[in-house]
Amino acid sequence: MDKPVNNRAWFLVLPVLVIVAFSAVIPLMTVVNYSVQDTFGNNQFFWNGLGWFQDVLESDRIRAALGRQLLFSAIILAIEIPLGIFIALNMPKRGFWASLVLVLMALPLLIPWNVVGTIWQVFGRVDIGLLGHTLAMLGIDYNYVNDPWDAWATIIVMDVWHWTSLVALLCYAGLQSIPDAYYQAARIDQASRWGVFRYIELPKMQGVLLIAVLLRFMDSFMIYTEPFVVTGGGPGNATTFLSIDLVKMAIGQFDLGPAAAFSLIYFLVILLISWVFYTVMTAQRDRT
């Protein structure tokens, strides 16, 4: 005899569906609508087809922003993932110091993005900032406002300071899940420290590393607030990443059609690269 189906459970899910519809689906449909139409104002639209998408894909300005964005994300992943693993491996495993270190590691993650940008904007100033003033006293010509290399270095160091804790905490959680029997067997076999890391710790961390890489890539690829507060996309266009360029196009220039097409392409690029990361790392984990 079949069990009766209780459809009243859907009433519990309905509020969530309504919230998602208003916060995600409806705005997305609005963006799609703008991306295929043009307007001369006064809410008078006419069909433009894929014209805006073609203009965006052929734009040298957007290609340059994409190149800067990919470079930034690659640098961030190359620094934060190994550094986070190193910190996690050297964190205390239990006791008072473990609790203290966990709290200290979590502090940067609690600071809002705009506050992080403001902190580093002041921190890097030559006149009142500790970093900028110290470098000036050491005879180092540092000015993130006028020098593109200094601007890039400041944003990269700021992001590493802000988000390496996330990678370290994820890796630490993965290390804590390893049974002590694995380490006991390694000591009996007189395995080296590198051998323990290579054959015990790293395989056990692959799941959390996959999450860390995906989170850090998506966040670094969509970064906006911190570099906008610190440099405003400058000097020139040196730190004008895709998100900053998109906001300038949509709000600064009020080109809603190209901005809508740009945002959809932006979303698809993030989705595609994240899928590639996930597929490659999952296949690598299954092989091991």
> H/E series, N to C?
HEEHHHHHHHHHHH
Ranges where pLDDT stays below 50 over 5 or more residues in a row are: none
Approximate helicity band: over 70%
Count of folded domains: 1
N-to-C span: 45 Å
Overall pLDDT metric: 88
| Distinct helical segment count | 12
Assign the CATH architecture.
Orthogonal Bundle
How would you describe what is shown here?
- The mean pLDDT is 88.
- This protein has one domain (59-287): Orthogonal Bundle (MetI-like fold).
- A hairpin with a 5-residue loop joins strand 1 (37-39) and strand 2 (45-47).
- Strands 1-2 form a two-stranded antiparallel sheet.
- Helix 1 (10-35) crosses helix 12.
- It has helices spanning 10-35, 51-57, 60-90, 96-106, 113-123, 130-137, 148-176, 180-188, 193-221, 225-230, 242-252, 256-287; strands spanning 37-39, 45-47.
- It has twelve helices and two strands.
- The protein is mainly alpha-helical.
Task: Please give a handful of descriptors for the protein shown.
288 residues; mainly alpha; MetI-like fold; two-stranded antiparallel sheet; 2% strand; globular
Strand-helix topology:
Layout: H1 10-35, E1 37-39, E2 45-47, H2 51-57, H3 60-90, H4 96-106, H5 113-123, H6 130-137, H7 148-176, H8 180-188, H9 193-221, H10 225-230, H11 242-252, H12 256-287
Antiparallel strand pairs: 1-2
Q: What's this entry about, in short?
A:
The chain is mainly α. Helices cover 73% and strands 2% of the residues. It has a single domain (59-287), classed as Orthogonal Bundle (MetI-like fold), CATH 1.10.3720.10.
